[in-house]
Amino acid sequence: MTPFHLAFPVRDLDETRRFYRDVLNCGIGRSSDSWVDFDLFGHQMSAHLRPDAASAARSGTVDGVAVPIPHFGVVLPMGQWQELADRLEANDSVDWVEKPMVRFKGESGEQATLFIRDPSGNALEFKGFRSMEQVFAH
After folding, report:
1. pTM of the predicted model, to two decimals?
2. What is the CATH classification number for the domain harbouring 115?
3. Which of 10, 17, 24, 95 has the fewest CB atoms nearer than 10 Å to its CB?
4. Residue range of the domain that includes 17
């Protein structure tokens, strides 16, 4: 698999560095006074300073649960997802949108999921699958 790249707006680079480094355990790559790159499970995420950027988030519904649109995140093997979920649940500073849950239980494509927000309000979803063959299941 090749890494994905995503650039996203943030209101403050220092708080963004702390969140992605300390809460999500992301490595930090190159940076300047207006952007910083993070290694999010092998993917390049570039936070760009936009203090005036207003959040345009809306909600959609998936399996009966409201989810923020837009959002981004990572699909993980179930064991790695559970480790992340446990670490996030133990951290009182996490801004939860949806606590860890199982979606499509007993169906093709069953997945664990959770949603959080970073300090700038960007929504992140982390999914866990017992079998990566189920990621694109019908």
Report:
1. 0.88
2. 3.10.180.10
3. 95
4. 5-49
